[in-house]
Each structure stands twice: as structure tokens, then as C-alpha cells.
Predict the structure.
Amino acid sequence: MEGSVLARIAAIVFVAIAITAAMVEMGRDEAGQAARPAAPLMPGADPLRTEQRRCQELGEAAASDPGCLAVWAETRDRFLGRERDRTGGE
């Protein structure tokens, strides 16, 4: 190998090491400790989620189950950001 090729390879390796060191340093907090990622938000038990699981386990029978139809309507309304009319009609 020629000297210029070796110099280019050495420069690329040096830059890669420098970038890696910079990324590690940016990942530390002010005290020099490795920063921990924030814990994911874990909401309490959601009754809607529990009912969704129940309907999932019912399989094809869930399509005719009135409880599952109500759960799917609630899920759809939450997703679309709509307020449901709780008096019985939509």
C-alpha cells in the first residue's frame, strides 16, 4: 500500500474514534455519570384495554358481541379525539 492510502485510512479511523468519543460524552450528565433514559410512562390499568384484550380473545365471536362493539366504538372515538355521548346514543 502506498503511504497516502495508509494516511487516509488512519485519518478515517481517527475521525470515527473522535465521533464515538463525542457521542459518549454527550450521553453523560453534568456529574459525569452516564445519563439514564427516562422511564416510559406506564399508566394504571385501563379498563378499556382490558376489554380490548377480552374481545381479541373472543376472536370471530367478538363481531356479534354487543360489549365488544361498544369497546370498539370507544376505541375509535378515543383515537379520533371525539367526545362520546354517554347518554346512550351517538
About this structure: The chain is about 55% helix and 0% strand. The CA atoms of residues 2 and 8 lie 10 Å apart. The mean pLDDT is 83. The two ends are 77 Å apart (CA to CA).
